[in-house]
Amino acid sequence: MRNYQTLPSGSVDRAKGLRRNATDAEKRLWSALRQQLGEAKFRRQVPLGPYFADFLSFSAKLIVEVDGGQHVERFEQDAARTRYLESQGYRVLRVWNHDVMENTDGVVETIAAALNPLSFQEREGPASRSGVGG
C-alpha cells in the first residue's frame, strides 16, 4: 500500500473525485488497459506530489497521460508537470483523447511497447518500432 501521508491535504479525496468523473477517453482507455494489459497493473488518478497521474504502472514506472484539446494551450504547465514526474523516476507517455476514442487498439499497442520495448521489438521486428510513440 502506498503511503499518502506526505501528499498535500485533500489529495486522496481529489483523486477519488477525478476517478468518479473520468472523461469518456479515460473510461475507454481504462477498460482497454484492464482487458488487454491487465498484467501491467495500472492505477487511475494517482496523486504524485502536487499532480495526479491519469494512469500509472508502479512496476514499470510508466505514467500515461490522456490529453484533450485544452492541453495545446497548456504546453508550459504540461512540460513542468512532465519534468517533475520524470524527476521522480517515471517515464511519461502522452496520448490524445481523439486517438483513444478513434484508435484504442493502437494506443494500447503504444503503451505495451513502452511497458516492455524489448518484447515488442522481438514480436514486431525493428521496422515496426520506428512508428511507435510518434
UniProtKB/TrEMBL annotation:
One of its GO terms (molecular function) is endonuclease activity. This is Endonuclease domain-containing protein. Residues 13-115 form the DUF559 domain. It holds the Pfam family DUF559. PANTHER family: BLL0828 PROTEIN. Residues 1-20 are annotated as: Disordered. The keyword Hydrolase applies. It comes from the Bacteria. It comes from Sphingobium phenoxybenzoativorans.
